[in-house]
Write a structure and sequence with these properties.
With about 170 residues, the chain is mostly helical. It has eleven helices and no strands. The protein has two domains: about 100 residues, Fumarate Reductase Iron-sulfur Protein, Chain B, domain 2 (Orthogonal Bundle), CATH 1.10.1060.10; about 60 residues, no CATH class. Helices cover about 55% and strands about 0% of the residues. The radius of gyration is 18 Å and the shape is globular.
């Protein structure tokens, strides 16, 4: 049985007060491309509802709907009549999942490893560079690895996400 956890609910509201403004209209879900392709299995409105109710286990352990499926396109944020910052709230939930040591998709670990090694979440390959040139897009600069390492060390990043457990 899922228990309402008021402390958890208040924690989420404290981290992003916009959560409190949601009146469950469902506009976010109807504008979400991931909800569309998963035929409603992924449902941002439901994640917000679970957050408002403080359903901690459902959000962090069961992950139903799976918050990791959000592709951060920001459609829901643009369409929400109440200006709820859904993607910010989802980021907080993802952070809590990682910190709790609950499972999360391997591709996020791979991206984290790439950030550490390349200064970019998705390394630039020749096809990507060529395509960007064809489209007239500017060059992408990777972050300064040394500077980045200082930040990652200060936040204990590698340990928290256990990136080097990623199988090769
Ligand atoms: S669109 Fe905004 S107000 Fe409506 S359900 Fe989604 S988060 Fe809540
Ligand atoms: S940001 Fe995430 S939840 Fe919002 S519309 Fe895009 S995929 Fe859906």
């Amino acid at each position: 049985m899922q228990m309402v956890d008021f402390e958890f609910r208040n924690e989420l509201i404290k981290e992003d007060f916009s959560l409190n403004y949601c009146y469950q209209c469902g506009t976010c879900s109807s504008s979400c491309p991931v909800a569309f392709v998963t035929q409603g299995e992924y449902n941002p409105r439901k994640i917000i509802e679970q957050s408002l109710l403080g359903l901690k286990d459902m959000l962090l352990k069961d992950q139903k709907p799976n918050v990791w499926l959000c592709c951060t396109c920001q459609m829901c944020v643009e369409e929400c009549p109440q200006k709820v910052f859904l993607t910010e709230i989802f980021e907080r939930i993802k952070n809590k999942i990682v910190l709790l040591g609950e499972p999360y998709p391997e591709n996020f670990k791979i991206q984290a490893k790439s950030v550490i090694q390349n200064g970019l979440a998705i390394p630039l390959t020749q096809p990507i560079i060529r395509r960007r040139e064809q489209l007239g897009l500017p060059n992408i600069e990777s972050a300064n690895i040394k500077e980045l390492k200082k930040l990652l060390d200060a936040t204990d990043f590698e340990k928290k996400i256990k990136v080097f457990e990623v199988s090769k």
